[in-house]
Amino acid sequence: MPKQKQGFIQFIIILILLVVILSLLGVSLNSLFSNPVLVGNFGFLGTWLANIWHNYFSTVFNYFWGIWVNLFWQQFIDTVRGFWNGVIFFNPR
Question: Which terminus of the chain has fewer Cβ atoms in its 10 Å neighbourhood, N or C?
Fold first, then answer.
């Protein structure tokens, strides 16, 4: 089985085991996610994380993403397109 599919299957198994463990501990997921205090706390946390992302991290991330795209990714895409079109970029010795 390819590595990529193994990771996905492991994630699904872990998720199922987590639900089983919570059920054995007597935790109801339905009542957990309908609790207004919990929903309010997650809403606050989501708003707070979005605020930090937009005010601090997004500019830095976009700067380094632009460097990555210009230096590496675009060159990689051009090379792959060349291979598809039959262009040989390397000289065999």
Answer: C
CA–CA dist 82, 92 (Å, integer): 16
Can you read off the two tokens belonging to residue 71? 């230096």
pLDDT lower than 50: segments of the chain: 1
Cα separation, 79 vs 88, whole angstroms: 9
Q: What is the DSSP letter of 25?
A: T
Rounded to whole angstroms, the Cα distance separating 52 from 74 reads 30
The H or E element containing residue 41 is helix 36-52
pLDDT tens-place string over residues 25-47: 998 888 888 889 988 999 999 99
CB 79 within 8 A of CB 89: yes
- Whole-model pTM: value is 0.47
Q: Rounded to whole angstroms, how far apart are CA atoms 64 and 19?
A: 38
Structure tokens at 3: 């590595």
